[in-house]
Amino acid sequence: MMSLNTKQSYKLSVKRATRRVRKQQHQQRRTTNPSFCKAHRSFKHMMKSKLSQKLHALKNLVPTHNGDIVKPDHLFQETADYIVLLRTRVVILHKLIEFYGNNNEHENAILL
Questions:
Q1: Which among 64, 99, 68 has a CA at the least distance from the CA of 84?
Q2: What's the predicted TM-score (pTM) here?
Q3: Do 75 and 62 form a contact (C-beta atoms < 8 A)?
Q4: Going by C-beta distance under 8 Å and a sequence separation of 6 or more, which residues neighbour residue 108?
Q5: 37, 28 Cβ separation under 8 angstroms
Q6: Do 67 and 60 contact (CB within 8 A), yes or no?
Q7: Positions of the region Disordered (predicted)?
Q8: Over the stretch 7-49, which tens digit does the pLDDT of each residue have?
Q9: Which of 4, 15, 33, 87 is paired with 72 by a 20 to 30 Å CA distance?
């Protein structure tokens, strides 16, 4: 039966050996297959480009800034605030319709 110390040191040595092997395999892949690295960089560039296009489109939808450079986290917060504002406007318009009434029930029907 193994003592607790021996068991822990065995687990630690296995963990280190596994890390070492994985690191060596990763380095071999990078050096033996340069097209993999090039394809990987190209994929990362494409994904970054798509993300920046989507952020740009989102920036154009939210009217709270004047074309300034905005960090993504700030842009997401502005977007969330804008969504809350729009929902509030919809609720207020519904209340105004209820308060002032409407002549034709079907004329002012809104599908949400």
A1: 64
A2: 0.49
A3: yes
A4: 97, 102
A5: no
A6: no
A7: 1-35
A8: 777 777 878 888 887 887 777 766 666 666 677 778 777 888 8
A9: 87
pLDDT, tens only, 44-68: 778 888 888 888 888 888 887 666 7
67: left (phi over 0), alpha (psi -120 to 50) or beta: left
User: Which of these, 50, 26, 22, lies nearest to 37 by C-alpha position?
Assistant: 26
CA angle at 29 for the pair 27 and 33, rounded to the nearest 5°: 130
Instruction: List CB contacts of 102: < 8 A, sequence separation 6 or more.
Output: 108
Instruction: Tell me the C-alpha distance between 48 and 54, whole Å.
Output: 10
Tokens of 1: 């039966």
| Block residue for tokens 């040191």 | 9
pLDDT in tens, 57-111: 888 888 876 667 788 899 899 999 999 999 999 999 999 998 888 666 555 556 5
For the packed helices 34-61 and 72-100, what is the interaxial angle rounded to 10 degrees? 30
